Amino acid sequence: MVQGYIVDPQTGRNVAIIRGGEVFRDDGKWRRFAIVLNEDLFDLRGELIGRLEGQHVVDASTRCMPMPIAFRNLLEG
Fold first, then answer.
1. pTM of the predicted structure, to 2 decimals
2. Quick one: pLDDT at residue 65?
3. Per-residue pLDDT at 2
4. Mean pLDDT for each consecutive 10-residue tract of the chain (77 residues)?
5. Per the count of CB atoms within 10 A, which of 3, 21, 67, 77 is most buried?
């Protein structure tokens, strides 16, 4: 099971924590907003939003940085 942190590559700060296959905002309120299956990240509706590459989230189709817009929108929402 994936455990760890997700880091924003632009700022270098932790933006999410992964526990038990679930992804929580690292904002002190710990709201769940995504899940991890293998290395893929899905929002709570089941839509693919990115792929884990170490502590970073990359675009699932191009595998490039920076953090995918869909993932960043969930962090802000």
1. 0.82
2. 66
3. 56
4. 80 90 89 92 93 87 75 81
5. 67
Q: Which residue has the tokens 């632009």?
A: 10
DSSP assignments along the chain, one per residue: ---EEEE-TTT--EEEEEETTEEEESSSS--EEEEEETTEEEETTS-EEEEEETTEEE-TTT--SS--HHHHHHHH-
- Tokens standing for residue 63: 């595998």
Instruction: Compute the residue count for the chain.
Output: 77
Do residues 4 and 55 lie in contact, with contact meaning Cβ atoms separated by under 8 Å?
yes
Instruction: Answer for the pair 54, 34: CB distance below 8 angstroms, yes or no.
Output: no
**Phi/psi at 75 (5° precision):** -65, -40
